[in-house]
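User: Assemble these into one structure.

Assistant: Restating your components, then the assembled model:
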Amino acid sequence: MRIAYYSPLPPQRTGIADYSADLLPELAGVADLTLFVDEPAEVLPELGARYELRPAGKLPGLRWSYDMVVYQVGNSLFHRNILRMAYQYPGLVVLHDETLHHLISTITAGEGDFPAYVRELAYDKGVEGAERARKISAGAETPLFSWTLNDRLVDLSLGTLVHSRSVQRRLLSAHPQSQIGYVPQAMPLPARRDRSDVRRRLGIPVDTFVIVTCGGVTPEKRLDLVTEAFLKLRAEYGKVYWVVAGASAAGGQVWYDRIVRAGAETNTLVLGYLEDMQAFNDAIATADVCVNLRDPSAGETSASALRALSLGVPVVVSDTGWYRELPDTVCARIRHDGTEVSQMVDALASWYLDPGSCRAAGEAGRRFVAEQHDPRQSAGVYVAFIEKILGNVEMTYG
Amino acid sequence: MDDDTISRLKLNQQITERPFRSDVPIVGGLIVRFRMLWNSISTLWYVRPLIQQQNEFNAALVQALEQHLSELDAHLLELDERLVDLDYDQVALAHTLAELQYKVIQLSHRESQGSGAGDASDALLALEE
């Protein structure tokens, strides 16, 4: 099977670039791949050496050389050209975020083309959508998370793969005629780390309870709440440390000012964006627990939560979306009802006071990732789904 | 033109006579009364029908504008509905076309494997051009 694969790739700072890097070795084992990217010269040299790499501009002319074009689509500007190409030349879409509203509003209304934004809203909700667009324009509504704007993409595509069962159910309900499949998020199992060793290397006291928050530091990660929980836990138990590893969004340092005001900066390590995946894994492996909230959720699957589990670190997550699909044995869930801080303190304290159950939850998490998120398994689902789509095409028109 | 503009027009459609005023101390009242008397002799019989005519014209104009706006809204709504339907149709057609193109390429790959003939990529590209 010949696949044209259009995705962001490392070193682009998006989780979907890392996702592709994790999946491609296995996908290349079951299909002939050509990678299409916006700027081939900027791709990590080892990827360029390993795979056939072409500029995305060549895809329209070459696409009939492939059995299927696969588009990796997420809700960020890294996917601006991918989305446009998927609209123009439909193929298989892997939808990483259920909502595409931020991306679509940015590349339409955000760039001065309000009628194009109205058209997208009208596609999703009919004339009511156009009416609501005017209210949004007037600032009366901000439905970026509640209104997904994925209908056009799903309707156009020959098939859509998602990483969440709940998203799959919703899409199937809205598009009963479409091919909507589930593929587990690919997460290779990293080598085990010696926790004490990685703590020493990063200058973290070995005998503390370490919390990590990893991945892009966006407002939805609610570091404001995590900060309060961390400070309370620290006030109660003392030996608590917080590691934050991930690029910070603009204006995202308010939580750190609170840390400084509370005099807790000596118990906090802010690592920023770590380009080297080994260093990123090391940072996560320092932790007893990973706190990875998402409120509001864009219907995404959290690669950083899965990465923590793959490293044997249990997670504290939001009680929403894909997080509800995690086994109860590997996580604690936080309801976003105004009592988040006390819920987090309770969850973290129970693991602080019972290191055995914390380790057991981490081990269960690692087993879960090994069994359910093996990239080889994901690559197999890709190929089977494409065969199903092509088979369906033959059934319809054969 | 929106609803606010129509409301503003309605507020101002009725023109009325302005009462005479004078700020001159002591004799101001006399001046006002004299002006009113002179106005009633010289211009009132002439101006009042004009005001009446203008008011009728304004009212008719605002009503016509309001009706026109309402009809325009209905037309725009109908146009919106048609555009949305066209958009749905266009997406459905684009999806079907893509399915057909993938079907052709599948058949072509299969045929070229069997006969050694070239595949249909070039033909499909030529069709698009």
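Chain B touches chain A at residues 77, 80-81, 83-84, 87-88, 91-92, 94-95, 98-103, 105-106, 109, 119-121, 124-125 (CB under 8 Å).
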